[in-house]
Amino acid sequence: MPVIVSLDVMLARRKVRSKELAEAIGITESNLSLLKSGKVKGVRFSTLAAICRYLGCQPGDILAYEPSDDDLHPDANE
Questions:
Q1: CA-to-CA separations, 48 to 10, 32, 63, in angstroms, rounded
Q2: What domains are defined for the chain?
Q3: Which of 4, 5, 69, 77 could lock onto 38 through a cystine, CB 3.0 to 4.6 A?
Q4: What angle do CA 39, 60, 69 make, to 5 degrees?
Q5: Percent helix, strand and coil across the chain, each rounded to 5?
Q6: Cross-strand partners of 65
Q7: What is the pLDDT along the chain (78 residues), one digit of tens a residue?
Q8: Is 68 left (phi over 0), alpha (psi -120 to 50) or beta?
Q9: pTM of the model
Q10: By the 8 A CB rule, do 36 and 65 touch?
Q11: In the prediction, which pLDDT does 74 show?
């Protein structure tokens, strides 16, 4: 997938546990786990904003784009 989620890295840098973040932003630990692993198709801007607010970071600190052939045919992997 061309979008890389490095939320786990930011959690480690801030010394915050997944459970703490999930409770603070009002999502389940399982949904946070799916987001951390990149197994989601999208994330609400309100959720992303809450994560960034709590961790004191920018969206670019936890999301990155790496071009790949998947970009050309995004529905091929479904």
A1: 13, 11, 10
A2: 3-77 (1.10.260.40)
A3: 5
A4: 55
A5: 60, 10, 30
A6: 3
A7: 688 999 999 999 999 999 999 999 999 999 999 999 989 989 999 999 999 999 999 999 999 998 877 677 666 555
A8: beta
A9: 0.83
A10: no
A11: 61
